[in-house]
Design a protein that fits this description.
2 copies of one chain form a homodimer.
Chain A (H helix, E strand, L loop, with lengths): L14 E7 L3 H12 L1 H8 L2 E8 L16 E2 L2 H6 L3 E4 L7 H10 L3 E4 L2 H18 L3 E2 L10 H8 L5 E7 L2 H13 L3 H10 L8 H4 L2 H15 L9 E2 L7 H9 L2 E13 L4 E13 L11 E8 L3 E8 L3 H21 L21 E11 L4 H11 L4 E6 L7 E8 L2 E2 H13 L3 E10 L3
Parallel strand pairs in A: 1-2, 1-4, 2-3, 4-5, 5-6, 8-10
Antiparallel strand pairs in A: 7-9, 7-11, 9-10, 11-12, 13-15, 13-16, 13-17, 14-15
Helix pairs in contact in A: 1-12, 4-5, 5-10, 6-10, 7-8, 13-14
């Protein structure tokens, strides 16, 4: 049994060395807080945490005064291999991956916020930590300050998660908000976001859904005890959302949100997990509809717990640093008191389902013949595919011989929903299928 | 270093014995889930969890078929002292306290949801766990399925919490909702809640705020690394809330909620923590205003993380069982892989502030002379106490020589707010102080 050193010992004699890889927005806040609140960190972890090196690419770049100049080095390998705790905040795949593997090999515990790396190489990093007998933590990789990784990995350890629905990318959420509140086009809203520094010059990772997809892969891996990589996620970004789409969503009492969705199916037709990122209509009274700007929120549904929601700042230096530092305290406490971070849990090995097996709802706008029997025929097309209809709304009269009808279905598999839409395109009562959108959140 | 046994090993050879004290609503669900999902629990914790005994008071009482009759016993001490893991779900102070202490003495890890016991005897139980070198977990004690204990104890370990604001009692939240939506009196709403089983025959613990106060004490202890007991919490329940209060709140664009508040002051006038439970006006657009019925929500504000909100089911058999079982997995994993639950963290030893040092906002309704200069005089009374005014609203004209005015202040210490109200009562321009209410949430 581990010796019981009370964590309330105020002046620990032990100290642990800390190396920081990267001194950008988050790194600077991590360094500032570790320094300013050193006594708190010592009391909480049981050891004084001493930063011994901060690896940066450009030694001469201007820095926040919170970053001690004498600790800066461009020898990242030395920082990665010379410390008890290594905090990786470089981002991207390389050299982050190589440095983290070197850190584990040197016996370090590693804390990172690198979602792309975990989504691509998570199992390798977990294995390296297990071999080293040290900790691998990455709370900051998903939704900034919100403890989503912990919630899924530990709070839900006694439950069966069925569904996770999240707004996990602040940039796209900001852009969609701007389009909604100001009637901007996607390009206009993107330009505004770039001017304000909310979107990068190359916005691809955000607006094409790749950042959210990496987070979705991490979420699904944890929620379902199954390895899910970036390639397992079907992804659609927000570039094609038009001002018209936004207006129509509002007319339907909805908001368009870019969602990361991890879903478990265990029914007569399919067994496995569906993981996807796409824009969807969310009813205005759903808790996710009121998540605005750079805030993130994650809704977790589990068999026993029911619905839980976690809400907070999804990015930014200080909030992300808060997540990094909770991991630092946990990893440090393990080195002092014994114990380890949870290892990879992938025992369930659920199959990854293709996008056609995803369960969603469709909102379909049709132009139909304004003739008796037309609506019944349309309803029959859905029924033939086992899709039941939740609501039918006839829009303002278009004139002539046709009417515009908006149909929202109940949840069904994309396979059946798409078959119904295909059949509608061929149906003699349907003049045109105007739009098809997914609806999420009930 | 702890040997690294991957938690993904599917068929662990090791097993751990589990004793359950109490087979009520929560206990029944815990037993059902542990049995039905035995393979999942084995894969996640690294050991098969075998229930060896279930202690109940009345062996002959009717039971859910999920509870195996052959495991029932009325020898609670034997169950407490004969297992690796002991789950205490009896509630109340005794015999729960004696049984938990006996369990620790026998080397067990203990999981409980007993908020009253922790608020009264937390330090003693933590000390017993430390002496035994085992775990003490109590996620289920606060807000059911919502991982508030973890969030404060571990996710915020790298941050400084400044404020926690929570709706943590579903019964009172349901009663206030009924009063709001149906215009019922407190007594009518309480009777409805009792009929539906949402309130007990003796509703004291809920409606007088004692249940929420125990949770507030636990929240404050964790948030501020300081021992806070039940006696340190100033408590006011909802018995005195009238249908008029509810109507006036709505007229002010607010909802009345029973809040558990834990606040840290560190300013020129005071240093310490203020912990209290009382009804307060919450602006309708504040996230806590939309928490209805038996749902709970906890808002945490921290220096680096900013504002986080956690939302979910605060009570009920299955949600509470989910919280208990996450603790069971953690405690079991520690027995298999080494490591320990966080020990009591009370190193900060912040002073407990009296209710007069709490920072809040007041909404004051006054009947003032409808004469030039009256409003200026009233504003001057607040100013003399260093209280600034956020808004002034003149209500529908009462007639005669007086007008009704509603004033909402900015945040200030109760000490100054009360002094201002006292001065108003004596002011010649004020015919009457109609009502004074606290406003929380910005």
């Amino acid at each position: 049994m581990v010796p019981s050193v009370p964590s309330s010992s105020f002046a620990p004699s032990r100290s642990l060395s800390v190396g920081v890889l990267g001194a950008g927005t988050v790194g600077t806040q991590v360094i500032r807080l570790l320094t300013e609140q050193a006594d708190d960190f010592a009391a909480r972890s049981g050891a004084r945490l001493e930063i011994t090196g901060i690896a940066v690419r450009d030694l001469s770049a201007p820095r926040d005064p919170a970053v001690p100049a004498e600790l800066l080095t461009d020898d990242a390998t030395a920082v990665a291999t010379g410390n008890d705790l290594v905090i990786e905040l470089i981002g991207g795949i390389e050299p982050a991956r190589t440095l983290i593997l070197a850190a584990f090999k040197a016996g370090a515990s590693v804390i990172t916020g690198n979602k792309a790396l975990i989504a691509a190489h998570g199992p390798e990093l977990y294995a390296a930590a297990a071999t080293a007998g040290t900790d691998f933590y990455y709370e900051a990789a998903v939704a900034g300050a919100i403890p989503v990784v912990y919630a899924l990995r530990e709070s839900m350890a006694g439950d069966r998660v069925t569904n996770v629905l999240g707004i996990v990318n602040g940039t796209t959420n900001y852009i969609l908000d701007e389009m909604t509140t100001k009637g901007l086009s996607f390009d206009q809203a993107l330009a505004t976001a770039q001017e304000l520094g909310y979107a990068e010059a190359d916005p691809t990772a955000d607006v094409d859904g790749l950042d959210a997809a990496a987070k979705a892969a991490i979420i699904a891996s944890l929620a379902f005890h199954t390895r899910v990589g970036l390639d397992d996620v079907s992804v659609e970004g927000i570039r094609d959302i038009t001002a018209d789409d936004i207006r129509e969503a509002q007319a339907s009492g909805c908001q368009i949100k870019l969602l990361a969705i991890a879903q478990r199916r265990e029914d007569e037709h399919a067994r496995g997990v569906s993981v996807r990122v796409h824009p969807a209509l969310v009813p205005a009274d759903h808790p996710l509809a009121s998540v605005h700007g750079a805030f993130n929120a994650v809704l977790v549904e589990a068999e026993a717990a029911g619905r839980l929601m976690f809400y907070g700042q999804g990015a930014g230096g200080a909030p992300t640093a808060s997540a990094v530092l909770s991991d630092v305290v946990a990893a440090a406490a393990h080195r002092v008191h014994g114990g380890q971070a949870p290892r990879e849990s992938c025992y369930a090995r659920l199959p990854i389902l293709g996008p056609e097996a995803a369960i969603t709802r469709y909102q379909v706008q049709l132009e139909v013949a304004d003739a008796p029997g037309a609506l019944a025929a349309v309803a029959g097309v859905f029924g033939a595919q086992d899709v039941s209809i939740n609501s039918v709304r006839q829009n303002a009269y278009v004139g002539g011989q046709t009417a515009v009808v908006t149909i929202v279905t109940h949840p069904a598999a994309v396979f059946h929903l798409d078959a119904a839409v295909e059949a509608l395109r061929r149906d003699e009562h349907v003049a045109a299928v105007i739009s098809v959108q997914r609806v999420e959140g009930e």
